[in-house]
Specification:
The chain starts with a helix and ends in a 5-residue tail after the last helix. It is globular, with a radius of gyration of 27 Å. The longest helix is centred in the first third of the chain and has 50 residues. The chain is built from 14 helices and 2 strands; from the N terminus they run αααααααααααααββα. α1 packs across α14, α8 runs antiparallel to α11 and α13 packs antiparallel against α14. It is an all-alpha fold. A two-stranded antiparallel sheet has the order 1-2. It has 2 domains: 49 residues, no CATH class; 212 residues, MetI-like (MetI-like fold, Orthogonal Bundle). Helix content is 77%, strand content 1%.
Length: 296
């Protein structure tokens, strides 16, 4: 009897521990994660259902469920694509984002490599100063940049945005690439220098191939900010057909106090697709650039 009684707690102990472990995991992991996902994805869900709702459902919450679509329609997307300048806005935004991204990555790569590898006097302070430049609010740079854009004859031109956006893209990308170049073993470059390679050859054949995750991470950051930028695009572009998507859907689809909610949400939904697709293709490189790099 004593042995049997002693065996009962031993048999139930694993089940009790397993139950407590599942409970604790649900409370500490799954419940907060579910709340985070709900809060994060609900705006996209609301934007999607609004883009496909007919106006009757959008304006009548008493007879229609605000969180579901009864009769989906493509009228808002059709109106956006064929009755507005959205295709032109989309192409302008894409061109500006790609142009400013490549320009920023090119400048940031050279600056980060020079600061990290050439080791000149005061290089750490130069890197810090470049990063501090990123912290300057765009509203402070707005007036001097506007003056320069007008003087150069670039007002109301997408080229103005391509040249202005690197003012806030280059500092952060440079700071990001400095940290990534630092993780690449310097011995690889020393061996190349002994073999007679120049700095540009080392950068092109050794450093850049190893720094691809960091470059992609900086590219994703630059493309996203360029695509979503609002202040400079609003100030430097005046013509309707040359506006970018974030500015155009707000200024062209709002008439007085009348908001075309279906078209607005459709424009926001279509405008978010390039960024989402961009992330989906390079998410592995992006994560690897944030979690680690080449180790010795």
């Amino acid at each position: 009897m004593t042995d049997a009684a002693a065996a009962i707690p031993q048999d139930n102990a694993p089940e009790t521990m397993a139950w407590e472990s599942k409970q604790r995991r649900f409370i500490t992991i799954y419940l907060p994660l579910s709340c985070f996902i709900l809060i994060l994805l609900f705006p996209f869900y609301w934007m999607t259902i609004t883009a496909f709702k007919p106006n009757a459902e959008l304006m009548d919450f008493k007879n229609h469920n605000p969180f579901w679509i009864t009769s989906p329609t493509l009228d808002h997307i059709n109106h956006l694509l064929f009755n507005t300048g959205y295709p032109s806005w989309f192409l302008t935004t894409m061109g500006v984002a790609i142009g400013s991204t490549f320009l920023s990555i090119f400048a940031s790569t050279l600056a980060a490599y020079a600061i990290q590898r050439l080791r000149f006097r005061g290089s750490p302070y130069v890197g810090l100063a470049i990063y501090l430049a990123y912290l300057v609010p765009p509203s402070i740079l707005f007036i001097p940049l506007a003056t320069m854009v007008v003087q150069l004859g670039l007002f109301d031109s997408p080229l103005a945005l391509i040249l202005v956006y690197p003012t806030f893209l280059v500092p952060f990308c440079t700071w990001l690439l400095i940290g990534y170049f630092k993780s690449i073993p310097y011995e690889l470059e020393e061996c190349a220098l002994i073999d007679g390679a120049t700095r540009l050859q080392i950068l092109r054949r050794i450093t850049l191939p190893l720094a691809v995750p960091g470059l992609i991470s900086a590219g994703i950051f630059s493309f996203t900010l360029s695509w979503n930028e609002f202040i400079y695009a609003l100030a430097f572009i005046q013509s309707s057909e040359r506006k970018t998507v974030p500015v155009a859907i707000l200024t062209e689809l709002v008439t007085g106090d009348v908001y075309q909610w279906g078209a607005l949400m459709a424009g926001s939904l279509l405008g978010s697709l390039p960024v989402a697709i961009f992330y989906s293709f390079f998410v592995d490189y992006y994560v690897s650039s944030l979690t680690g790099a080449v180790k010795e």
